[in-house]
Amino acid sequence: GRVKNVTDFGVFVDLGGLDGLLHITDLSWGRVTHPSEIVEMDELITVKVIDFDTEKQRVSLGLKQLQPHPWESVEAKYPVGSVVEGRVVSMTNYGAFVEIEKGVEGLIHVSEMSWIKHVRHPSEIFSLDQTVEAKILNVNVSERKISLGVKQLQPDPWDQIEDKYKVGAIQKGLVRNLTQFGAFVELEEGIDGLIHITDLSWTRNVRHPREILSKGDEVDVRVLDVSRENRRIALGLKQVAEDPWDQIEAYFTSGKQVKGDVIRVLDKGVILQMEMDIEGIIPQGRIQA
């Protein structure tokens, strides 16, 4: 038949005295924004009759039905582990949809976009109509879903983390964030370790990491523990220096008179800053009036 009219919702085709509607969803197995992407006015096309309503004299036509459904051969064409190329056709908060071929799309979830970066939205990595390569992670023919990943095209830096950051080694890092329980230190792009608040100082009672560190500080830290499975690195700041408590105990012998500056007054007593960067307490019951 010949294309008689093109509308937003489909194409009217003159079949020779009888018009048929080729709906936009029956033009292609792939995404179609407007029928003009597929056909032109007065174009002579071959279509398939997919429905005929004798009462309303309506003929429904299909163009895509002249070709096999692309999902019939998806498992054979796209085995798990293979690398495919496609075009980004849509993005949501949770991922990017990639058209691998007309009618076959896969989803790159935000968690499969980078080994080292916390991606909050696909637009941080991709743009619409961008051509990308991705690895097939899973194929579900019954639900017509394909899971894709781009980070899998690169080695996972955490696979070699235990060899690169040996327990006991001293590393340089940059303080990226401070929380109530510790400081996060970037050892390399995307690889952070945590200095727990208890590992900041041998001698001070640290109430918040900001008493010792600031964002942007470059620090030397000692690797205390590495877990590839949990993707965690425990770091110590105080462990870069030797534990001074043997010397402290030898210096501050019982009965020795010492001086200190009052730094805090609490209900339970008075806190003093003393020599060797340590704090002492005069309990409330021992404070002379």
UniProtKB/TrEMBL annotation:
Q: What region holds the S1 motif domain?
A: 1-64, 81-151, 168-238, 255-289
Gene Ontology cellular component terms for the protein in this record:
cytosolic small ribosomal subunit
The alphabetized UniProt keywords are:
Repeat, Ribonucleoprotein, Ribosomal protein, RNA-binding
> Which Pfam families would you find in this protein's record?
S1 (PF00575)
MF terms in GO: mRNA binding; structural constituent of ribosome
Q: Which InterPro entries match?
A: NA-bd_OB-fold, Ribos_protein_bS1-like, Ribosomal_protein_S1-like, S1_domain
Enumerate the Gene Ontology biological process terms: translation
Where would you find the membrane-spanning parts of this chain? none
Q: Would you identify the family this protein belongs to, as annotated?
A: Belongs to the bacterial ribosomal protein bS1 family.
The protein, known as:
S1 motif domain-containing protein
- Record the organism: marine sediment metagenome
